[in-house]
Amino acid sequence: MSTVPRALTLPPQAPAAPAAARRAARRRARRERTTAWAFISPSVVVILGLSVVPVVWSLLLSFRADDLVTPGRWVGLDNYDALVQDPGFRTAVGNTLLYAALYVPLSLVGGLALALALNRRMRLIGLYRTLVFVPFVVSATAQGVLFSFILDPEFGAANSLLHHLGIARQGFLSDPDQALYLLVLISLWSGVGFCVVVYLAALQDVPPELVESARIDGANRRQVLRHVTLPALTPVTVFLLLWQLITAIQVFDLIYVTTKGGPLGSTTVVVYFVWQQAFQMFTAGYGAAAAYVLALALLVAGGALRVVRRRQGRTAGAAR
Amino acid sequence: MSARRPALARHLLLAPVALAFALPLVWLALSSVMSDAEINRFPPALWPHGIDLGGYRYVLGNAMFPRWFGNSLIVACVAVASNLLLGALCGYAFARMRFAGSRLLLGLMLATMIVPFQLTMIPTFLVMKWLGLIDTLGALIVPSLVTPFAVFLFRQFFLSLPREMEEAAWIDGCSRLRVLFSIVLPLARPALATVAVLTFLTTWNDLSWPLIAINHDTQYTLQLGLTTFQGQHHVKWSAVMAGNVITVLPVLVAFLLAQRAFVQSLTSSGLKG
Questions:
Q1: In a mutagenesis test of the B interface, which of A32, A43, A89, A163 is the best target, namely the one with the most B β-carbons within 10 Å?
Q2: Which fold has domain A78-319?
Q3: N or C: which end of chain B has fewer CB within 10 A?
């Protein structure tokens, strides 16, 4: 940048203005500054006060033994040390990774497949779209309560259905081997709709003349999908990947309502672990340390995706 | 492409899928009007034999659902109003005014969007405790007064509007506030709708923060009340489902009434956020 020679023309404001005009301009700038601060200060106080301050506070807390009631003491990295050795935390990380590894790709693939199927003008298409999307607005609490009922081993509709089909009763959410997978399914029920909606919007932006010319060149439907549609959707896919990953790693409400981390810790995820430590065991410092480990993992994932995105942007630019 | 046969094939594919998505909600509605006797037997009935409003009567009479409904409504409405006001003010300043530090502040605000909730929840609890708001609706309202998302969305939208009209009004002596309210905001309906819809959805549906900030059942929101109620009434499934319908219905109705705005909100936030 510094090697670029400077323009020889002067910027428009620069020519010497009469002193009075300059003073007026300065006064205007000052008034503008005051107005601007009046406009932004409530938001600045709320947003920075309740996020930047807590982020730093959490970091400090993670170096302390603190129960939120009595004054704590500085313990350095002890909390992090203990976390590494805590089998409960290791299980929580494992459960979270398994949940994310299932939920993220399935919601993306399912969302794309449904969006492709729904991307057509035909009768009833509006109804189909509505039905696929409607579970997304249902709160995780309501989902949890509803599926606790449907999957209730004794009174649930699911076992009743299996009974009619001649299949033995299942434990569902009370079975440690099934619970986490069922939670993934419940999350997919409500989460796929979001991917569908975003993909549908992105599909409208795929240039039709590109598809047209590929068809004229003799590409069949699958080839058009593979070589035209999917590449055009890449930015949206990267966004959804990141978004769904963040959602998956932060899952809490559904688990609190359905299994409370059980049975036998089979659905304890990291956020549930943090909440338990801070607000049930009153080891807030320990919980803060676990939260930091999770945040760091998110940051790394986000950073990696950003790098991928940038590299893709570069190759796309080069291709053009 | 417009041949009849592929369309039929697509219907045969899509109809069962769409039905599968709808089925749990249908079951929710059905079981809320079943009697407990119908539910509490094995195998349970899959279709109600008549409409039994006992669950609703129980929930509206004996339990605190009306109160929780009111609490949720207050929190969500205050959050919507203040996100619209504060978000628009702040977004407008970032879009149109020049002041020292604006870039840094905006960057900082945007960075907070990726901060996960669990990182801030413990200190936010401590801040609310220090303010004396724990166990009041204030503890639920203050953290959701304005989100960086609202600020960012308004800023982006204002940047997309032409400046000329505002400049003319400004030169005529209108204050920035007048310009914002009488010229800019009437043009910003899509942005207002998006922020309102998403703020309502997230505050109405939230469970984790009320769970931390509220202990006393008079201050519960519907989500918190519903999960506690379920824990205490294991066998009264009809009442639990009636409560669940009451919890879901407002967002469902809002969604069905304003589906287009809803979907546009999500995609605009998704593609630009």
A1: A43
A2: MetI-like fold (1.10.3720)
A3: N
| Digit-coded pLDDT (tens) for B86-117 | 999 999 999 998 888 889 999 988 888 878 88
- What ranges do the domains of chain A cover? 78-319
The fold for domain B63-232 equals: MetI-like fold (1.10.3720)
A49 and B CB contact within 8 Å: yes
Please indicate whether, in this complex, the C-beta atoms of A160 and B105 are within 8 angstroms of each other. no
CB contact under 8 A, A139 and B223: yes
Count of CB pairs separated by less than 8 Å, A with B? 286
- Contact A272/A287 with Cβ under 8 angstroms? no
User: Which pLDDT does position A314 carry in this prediction?
Assistant: 63
Count, residues in chain B = 273
Q: Quote the ipTM score.
A: 0.89
Of A139 and B40, more confident:
A139
Model pTM score: 0.87
* B123 within 8 A of A54, measured Cβ to Cβ: yes
- Check if B122 contacts A (Cβ < 8 Å): yes
User: Is A139 in CB contact (< 8 Å) with chain B?
Assistant: yes
Q: What pLDDT, in 10s, does the model give residues B44-66?
A: 677 778 788 888 988 888 778 99
- For chain B, domain boundaries: 63-232
